[in-house]
Amino acid sequence: MNAPICPNCGGPLTRVVDVPYGWWEWDEATGSYRACNAASRVDVAPWVHAACMGELRKFHPQDPIVPASAAT
Ligand SMILES: [Zn+2]
């Protein structure tokens, strides 16, 4: 069965990460690291798709997976 699809980038959610403190990305323009966070709200940090680092607010990897062909 294929992995669920990311609502942010459309790619398969084959790797998701739990990043409560966000992550840091290299910024060539400033020559320094820039703090990043996917959370759009302040309550709970979301799971994040590793491919696009978009937040997955409704997602949890232990939720039952519904095959895309069965979804309506
Ligand atoms: Zn994605």
Layout of SSEs?
Elements: E1 16-18, E2 23-27, E3 32-36, E4 47-49, E5 55-56
Antiparallel strand pairs: 1-4, 2-3, 4-5
This protein binds zinc ion.
Zinc ion binds at residues 6, 8-9, 11, 49, 51-52, 54.
Question: In short, what is this structure?
Answer:
With about 70 residues, this protein is mostly beta strands. It is built from no helices and five strands. The structure holds zinc ion.
Overall description:
The protein has a domain at 18-63. With 72 residues, it is mainly beta. The protein is built from no helices and 5 strands. It has a 3-stranded antiparallel beta sheet, with no helix packed on it. Zinc ion binds next to loops.
Jot down its keywords.
single chain; 72 residues; mainly beta; three-stranded antiparallel sheet; two-stranded antiparallel sheet; 5 strands; binds zinc ion
